[in-house]
Design a protein that fits this description.
about 350 residues; mainly beta; 8-stranded mixed β-sheet
């Protein structure tokens, strides 16, 4: 992962503690809403506003919607499901911007140099609902980008508890114990590229802090990680990105190769390569650079969850494309699908 000069980031003064952010947030929005902790698996949603798709081939998934042309190339994507259903895009040369599941921009581009984003989560912090996206800045430090309704852009927050070598990659997931932590976060560093540090994001002493709980050593440098079936899983080359998608009790692992190929494994079964099909007005990037996924998409009309891919659909035309995984997540499993 290359580095480039840091932008003139307008970082929120975190020395005042998370309470300072909450005061700023409260002055910017119409008031807090109750967070929904339990995914609404049976909620009825409308279909995506996209043209009808041609009949899908056996090992393919349809791209059903995409953003308008973006201002900069896509570097990384983080996605939050549930009540905070949005995705954040880190731009190569641009900053960070948040979108809804209709592909519409809901913030301006923040002036932060973000090299990697992990899964976000809608949480209550001191009684205030916000969406938190963990990530890494250009200096290799772990940060959190916090968004709440009414803010014109996500605010950068300096997480406590991570010191030492520059981080090289990061992944996150919902906590196993919601009463004990806000989120699980794992990372590896440039100094120890084959060691995954695993921990929890907690609110402690008026600050957000990462607390280490475990570590995992592997034989080769880590290129991607995700949490699947409540366990952290690492990947080496040629995998460039990974995402876990949990829907109706089914655990789906989606990985992206360095060449932009998408591979899928269901409940730990055999890995199958899936072609992502263009729609009538939706074009899939020639070589996607970033991937994220959620099984609980409460916007845009994705009953089976959502996969997002970022890249260029042609030279200079940067997009994020929304892929419908319902064929995998909402259909009965066959013996071949589970590797038997």
């Amino acid at each position: 992962m290359f580095k480039r000069p840091r932008l003139s980031a307008q970082t929120f003064p975190v020395n005042a503690g998370i309470a300072g952010f909450l005061l700023f947030y409260a002055a910017s929005c119409s008031g807090p809403q109750e967070v929904e902790e339990t995914p609404q698996e049976t909620t009825e949603t409308q279909a995506p506003e996209a043209p009808a798709q041609p009949a899908a081939e056996p090992d393919s998934l349809p791209a059903v919607w995409m953003t308008r042309e973006l201002d900069f190339p896509v570097r990384s994507i983080g996605i939050a499901g549930g009540a905070g259903s949005t995705f954040a895009v880190a731009y190569d040369g641009g900053g960070l911007q948040i979108f809804d599941f209709d592909g519409d921009r809901i913030t301006e581009i923040s002036d932060h140099d973000v090299t990697a984003l992990a899964q976000g989560r809608y949480v209550m912090i001191s009684g205030t609902p916000v969406t938190v996206y963990p990530g890494i800045d250009a200096q290799g430090d772990m940060k959190a980008w916090i968004y709440g309704g009414g803010l014109s852009e996500a605010i950068q927050y300096d997480l406590q508890g991570v010191d030492g070598a520059a981080l090289a990659g990061i992944c996150a997931a919902d906590p196993q114990n919601r009463d004990a932590s806000l989120q699980r976060i794992a990372f590896w560093t440039e100094a120890a590229p084959a060691v995954l540090e695993i921990g929890e994001l907690v609110e402690r002493g008026g600050e957000l802090e990462w607390v280490k709980t475990d570590e995992e050593s592997v034989s080769q440098p880590i290129e991607a990680c995700t949490f699947i079936a409540n366990e952290a899983e690492t990947f080496n080359a040629p995998v460039a990105g990974a995402a876990g998608l949990k829907r109706l009790g089914r655990e789906t692992l989606v990985t992206l190769t360095e060449e932009g190929m998408v591979d899928v494994s269901v409940d730990g079964g055999e890995t199958t390569r899936y072609e992502i099909l263009d729609g009538i007005t939706v074009v899939v990037p020639n070589q996607p650079k970033a991937i994220a996924a959620t099984g609980d998409a409460r916007g845009g009309g994705y009953p089976g969850g959502l996969i997002v891919l970022g890249g260029d659909i042609e030279r200079g035309d940067h997009r994020v494309v929304m892929v419908d995984p319902s064929k995998i997540t909402l259909t009965p499993l066959t013996e071949s699908a589970i590797g038997q």
